[in-house]
Amino acid sequence: MDQLNQSFMYSQILKEILIIIDFDQQNILEFTAYCREHFSSGNIVLKSIDKLEQEYNSHMPIWWYTYPCFLYSMLNQALRTMNVDIIINIGFFLRNLHQNIVQLHKEQYVGQAHSASFTVYRGQGCLGQTSTS
Q: In 10 A of CB 75, how many CB atoms?
């Protein structure tokens, strides 16, 4: 149980740090260079890296998260295994994704009193379930 609490606290602190950092275009270039080193084989992946580098600012972060490329699986694996190296490198995206979700939530619930929250998974929603977090 202590291990779970430590992991949770560590991930919360890391999240808070990533949210307050001001990332810029240089961080995207560093991330794509990192990806090219780790995905040196595979034409499809390299094309996705090029697309990310050239078009990142042309799409919303949620678009990139759902776009069928390495980004979704890389991010989720890094979060599952708490691979801090990858999490830091992809931090610009985590921050942008967080801000995009917050903004969309505000737009969806503007002027509405919303008391219950619900859990959403990529590709599916849990209708009728509420969470207290």
A: 18
**pTM across the whole model:** 0.74
How are the residues of the chain apportioned to helix, strand and coil, as percentages rounded to the nearest 5?
A: 70, 5, 25
pLDDT by residue for the chain (133 residues), tens digit each?
556 677 777 888 888 888 888 889 999 999 999 999 887 777 888 999 999 999 999 999 999 999 998 899 999 999 889 899 999 999 999 999 999 998 988 888 776 665 566 666 665 444 444 444 3
Pairing of strands 124-125, 120-121: antiparallel
Return contacts of 13-17, CB within 8 angstroms, 24+ apart. 14/84, 14/87, 15/94, 15/98
Distance between CA atoms of residues 84 and 97, nearest Å:
18
Q: Where are the domains of the chain?
A: 2-108
